[in-house]
Amino acid sequence: xxxxxxxxxxxxxxxxxxxxxxxxxxxxxxxxxxxxxxxxxxxxxxxxxxxxxxxxxxxxxxxxxxxxxxxxxxxxxxxxxxxxxxxxxxxxxxxxxxxxxxxxxxxxxxxxxxxxxxxxxxxxxxxxxxxxxxxxxxxxxxxxxxxxxxxxxxxxxxxxxxxxxxxxxxxxxxxxxxxxxxxxxxxxxxxxxxxxxxxxxxxxxxxxxxxxxxxxxxxxxxxxxxxxxxxxxxxxxxxxxxxxxxxxxxxxxxxxxxxxxxxxxxxxxxxxxxxxxxxxxxxxxxxx
Length: 288
Known about the structure:
Elements: E1 6-13, H1 21-35, E2 44-46, H2 66-83, E3 86-93, E4 120-127, E5 130-136, E6 157-158, E7 163-166, H3 175-183, E8 188-193, H4 202-214, E9 217-222, E10 224-227, E11 230-233, E12 237-239, E13 245-248, E14 254-261, H5 274-277
Helix pairs in contact: 1-2
C-alpha cells in the first residue's frame, strides 16, 4: 500500500495552444497520460493559470459560456479517473467558491452566454472521483479587473496526502492569503501562474518566502511562451518548508516532478514555529 504521507507532485510547464481550446485540452490529456498510472505515477498534476483559454481575454476566440466550463470540468474529471490522478488547472469560471455562495456552484443551473454572470480567473481541483472545488483569484493583476471579478475566499481542501490550498499567480505576492490558509491547516500551497518577463525571479523568491513563513510545501507552476506582446518565463518551482528547492525548472517545456514527504512537517524546528510565536493582537494595522 502506498504511504499516504508521500505525494508525487507534477508541474506542467508549457504554453497552451492559444486560440485553440481543443488542441490545448488534448495537450492537457497527453501530459496527464505521461504523469498518470502508466507513466511517472504522479499523484497531483498542476497546470498554469488560465491554461485552457490562454491569458488574454481579448485574444480568445469568444467569451466562454457556463456550459463550456462544465464541459472542461467533465473532460478533466474523465482524465483524472482514467489516469488515477488529481489535477489542478486554470480556467475562466462562473461557479467558483465565494463568500456569498460558499462551495463551488456546480449544481446551479446557469444557461446562456454568461454575459450577465461575473467571470472569475479560477483554478479547479479535480480528483478521480470528481470536482473538489474551484478557487477564484483574489488579487487581480494589471488589466485583469477589466475582464474578471475578484474572488473573496481562501479555501483549503482535503486530499489523501494532506490539506491543500490553491491560489493564483499575483496572489503569491500578498502574504496574507497564504497565512490564512496556513492557519486553516494547509500543508501544501500551489500557485498556478502566468508570470512574465521581466519578473522571472520574483515568483521564485515569493515561493520560497511563503514556504518558509508558513511551514508548508509551496509550488508555483508557470507557463512559457509568447502571447500578444507578453513573454511568459517558466521557472516553475517547489520549495520544501526548510528552504530546500525540490524543483527548479529551467525555461524549457515539460513535466517536472518531485516527491513531498508530508511526515517531515512534524519534525520542523519548534524554535521557529511562526504560528506559535505570532502576536496577532499587535497586527491590527494590517487590516485597516
